Structures are given as structure tokens and as C-alpha cells.
Amino acid sequence: MSGYFTEDIGAQELQERTAVATDIAEAVRTLIADTVLTEVDASAAATAIEHIEAAAEILRSRQLPDDSFGVRFNTDGTKRTWGNAVIGTRNPIAPPLDVVFDDDGLAWAEFEMGPAYEGPAGLVHGGILAAILDQILGSAAEHAGAPGMTGTLTIRYRQGTKLGKVRAEARLDRVEGVKSIAVGRISTAEGTTAEAEGIFILPRWARESGAADKIRKALSDG
User: Fold this and answer.
1) pLDDT per residue as tens digits for the range 155-186
2) Domain boundaries, the chain
3) pLDDT over 50 at 61, yes or no
4) Which of 10, 119, 194, 212 would suit a FRET pair with 46, their CA atoms being 20 to 30 Å apart?
5) For this UniProt entry, what's an example GO CC term (predicted)?
6) pTM over cut 0.90
């Protein structure tokens, strides 16, 4: 399947690339939040647009040949999904989630949901929460050695999720053949706000191409 690449990048170069990607994405992420909240007049907005367009021109001067970042495996087995809309290092739309994996199988992340993610007044949009749950459940299944693509995602919204500090967590519940079932939740200081169960299916192309084996090797190598 296209969009999956293998690269040979040294540790120092990867560290440098990560720093650059993180800084650019965070700057644009801040710009998005500022855009939502700004009340400058037309003249100031026009000046800001000129600067934004100039910055965009610089970024467009050297880009990947494809329309997506894809999934990139390094020769040491590590994986980069920098374009991912939830965890992508390069993606300013991503909060992003920095997922931690505990020894007991729990995958979790704590992050800030700012004004760019608003749905109902002062609350995180339900669709954004769905994307986060999809990602954290899938990450838990993958880290447990049972990767797959989302087949179904069932969510129960228990209460509104206020903008601000949010926690997502999940774990693999069971495996049934090529299906992995994970469960998880979203919470804030006020308690659980949403719960989810996801069924992730390892597609035929992944089984035949060995992509799943690469993921398992990356996990076993630490």
C-alpha cells in the first residue's frame, strides 16, 4: 500500500528534524488559536495576512513530493507518523497527543484543548473527542502487538468536556483473530466525559506486506 516508506536517518539528524517540525507546528498551532480569538481591525488583519502568506511561501519552497507525510519507518524499526491529525509532530491541527505506555498496558496522554477545538460554547467538539479516542484506542492496541485499522468506534458521551486540560486513556481488551478490541475514555478534573470501544482490523495488505511485523519489531526493540 502506498504511503508507507522506509528511510535511513541517523539519530542526530532525526533529533534535529524533530525539533524543527515541533517548533513550526507549535508556532502555527498558536497562530490558529490567536486567529480564533483575535479582534483586530481590518488594517491589522491585512498586515497579519501578508506575514502569514510570506511564511507560507517559505514553507512551500521545499516540500515532500507527495500530498501526505505517510508512515515512515526508520531502518532501526522506529516509526514516524508526523502528519497524523491527532499525534502528528508536524501537524498544527493535532493537539498533539504525546502517548505514554505503562507497563500494565495502559496508554494515556494529557494535553490542552484550546479554542480551536471548540464545539458547544466552552466545550470540546464531540467529533474532536472521537478522533482522539480513535487514536488512543488504536495506539493501545498497536503497542500491545495487535495493530489494525478502525472497523467500528462506539462512543458514549457522558457529559461535556470543557476546554482546557484533558486526559485520554485506553487499553487493549481482547483479540479475536484479525480483530483487536480496545476500550478507553476521556476525562477532565470533573470526571469521565466520554467512553469508547473500538474494533481494529488488521487488513490483508498489512498481513501480506509485513507492515504489522515491522510494528511488532519496533515494539520489541524498545
Assistant:
1) 999 999 999 999 999 999 999 988 999 999 99
2) 1-96, 97-220
3) yes
4) 119
5) membrane
6) no
